[in-house]
């Protein structure tokens, strides 16, 4: 479990494509998989094999680590359903370690299971903050409300406006300087994770039966 408070702006240093690890399906364009090497001296301090680290909001498992970097295997499902498939060496990424039991919940409850992707639509700078508008998949729209929480590329943010197919967030200078949202431009993809509480409430209100339009399966 994460909180959406980014600890470090890391960098992809290598991407090893592993080929067809699984057959293609209607939901997956290919069976590709990959191994990422990520530089992150802060999040790798005290790391061990099997630990979890969120990379742009996607919970990945540490396979190897050393010299301030770690490697993680990324399966086809994750590459196809998140923006990680677009990463290349040199890409900057948001990094966060799981919250320690009993620690402070600085953002909101974040699972690291991406529900879908959006696209940066536009940016409106102001003197002390910046408004960023992001497209919203129709299947996720019902979970996003004004002044509610949403995770964008692993960052816990408060929704300013919520429309049918987009939402906006207001970014303070710290967020702009220390996360990928400071460098994302119109057209760039971002990972979205909606508030998990909303999904559980919806399911319980429906008596356990499937509700609404199915949203993409979460990925890890």
From TrEMBL:
A GO molecular function term, named singly, is:
riboflavin synthase activity
Top-level enzyme category: transferase
Lumazine-binding repeat segments run 1-108, 109-205
PROSITE patterns on file: LUMAZINE_BIND
Decide whether keyword Repeat is in the record: yes
* Listed pathway(s): Cofactor biosynthesis; riboflavin biosynthesis; riboflavin from 2-hydroxy-3-oxobutyl phosphate and 5-amino-6-(D-ribitylamino)uracil: step 2/2
> Which ranges form a coiled coil?
none
Location of the Lumazine-binding domain: 1-108, 109-205
List the catalysed reactions. 2 6,7-dimethyl-8-(1-D-ribityl)lumazine + H(+) = 5-amino-6-(D-ribitylamino)uracil + riboflavin
Fetch the Pfam families from UniProt: Lum_binding (PF00677)
Going by the UniProt record, its keywords in alphabetical order are: Repeat, Riboflavin biosynthesis, Transferase
Under Enzyme Commission nomenclature, its number is 2.5.1.9
Protein function: Catalyzes the dismutation of two molecules of 6,7-dimethyl-8-ribityllumazine, resulting in the formation of riboflavin and 5-amino-6-(D-ribitylamino)uracil.
Kindly give the NCBIfam families that the UniProt entry links to this protein. PRK09289.1, ribE
Protein name according to UniProt: Riboflavin synthase
Q: Which organism is it from?
A: Actinacidiphila polyblastidii
């Amino acid at each position: 479990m994460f909180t959406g408070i980014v600890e470090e702006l890391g960098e992809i240093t290598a991407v090893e494509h592993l080929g067809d690890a699984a057959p293609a399906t209607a939901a997956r364009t290919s069976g590709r998989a990959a191994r990422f090497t990520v530089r992150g001296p802060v999040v790798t301090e005290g790391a061990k094999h099997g630990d979890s680290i969120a990379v742009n909001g996607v919970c990945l498992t540490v396979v190897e680590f050393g010299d301030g970097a770690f490697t993680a295997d990324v399966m086809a499902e994750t590459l196809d359903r998140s923006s990680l498939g677009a990463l290349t060496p040199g890409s900057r990424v948001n990094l966060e370690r799981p919250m320690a039991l009993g620690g402070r919940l600085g953002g909101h409850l974040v699972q690291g299971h991406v529900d879908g992707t959006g696209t940066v639509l536009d940016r409106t700078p102001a003197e002390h903050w910046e408004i960023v508008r992001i497209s919203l998949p129709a299947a996720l729209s019902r979970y996003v409300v004004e002044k509610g929480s949403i995770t964008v590329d692993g960052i816990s943010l408060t929704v300013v406006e919520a429309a049918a197919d987009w939402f906006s967030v207001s970014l303070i200078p710290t967020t702009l300087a220390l996360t990928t949202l400071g460098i994302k431009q119109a057209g760039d993809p971002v990972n979205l994770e909606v508030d998990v509480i909303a999904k559980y409430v919806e399911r319980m209100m429906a008596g356990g039966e499937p509700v609404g339009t199915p949203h993409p399966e979460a990925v890890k």
